Hints:
Blueprint: E1 3-6, H1 15-29, H2 44-48, H3 52-69, H4 76-85, E2 89-93, H5 104-114, E3 121-123, H6 130-135, E4 140-143, H7 146-153, E5 158-162, E6 174-176, H8 179-188
Parallel strand pairs: 1-2, 1-4, 2-3, 4-5, 5-6
The protein binds magnesium ion.
Magnesium ion binds next to loops.
Amino acid sequence: MYRIGIDIDDTICDTNELIVIEADKYDREVLGGIGIKNPDAYDFPTMMGWDINGKGKFFADRLEYIMANAKIKPFAKEVINKLYDEGNEIVFISLRKKKYLSDPYKLSFDWLHKNEVKFHKLFVDTGEKTDECVDNKIDLFIDDLPKNCEDVSSAGISVLLFNSDYNHDENRFNRVNDWNEVYDYIHKGDF
Ligand SMILES: [Mg+2]
């Protein structure tokens, strides 16, 4: 039995993909812009040519919708539920903030239920995720952000970087491309 800490956005669901689609619409429909200006940019505000205020306004208006409607990644439900049924403890740890969402806990809880994902605990608006991992004696932490992997790993906890378009350059952590690889990695138990 392992205690597994799991990020939400871009680890179990495709949040960033929907952010880009909605930001493009928002720029055209609300801000009167031309939509995506720099398609090869690394982050969506640069893609849209927005400053910090543009990003803040967009998040205040649309983040709730995006996070409620982000699509679950292939096999995330099947693998997480299998791990749960096998007796592992599933702990979701998300940075989702009260600053932009009226109730990030309820939003995430409802999304997990709607998508039929089983879990034991859910933490939101965490800041650094190290405290939640240490307090819950997490054995393996899975996230798409190198910074989160770095923080948690510095506390001596094993981490797994979930592959995404924007973390290709990162080579300090073991990496998985999809949820079936997560299952195999956990079953090897070599962490
Ligand atoms: Mg994430």
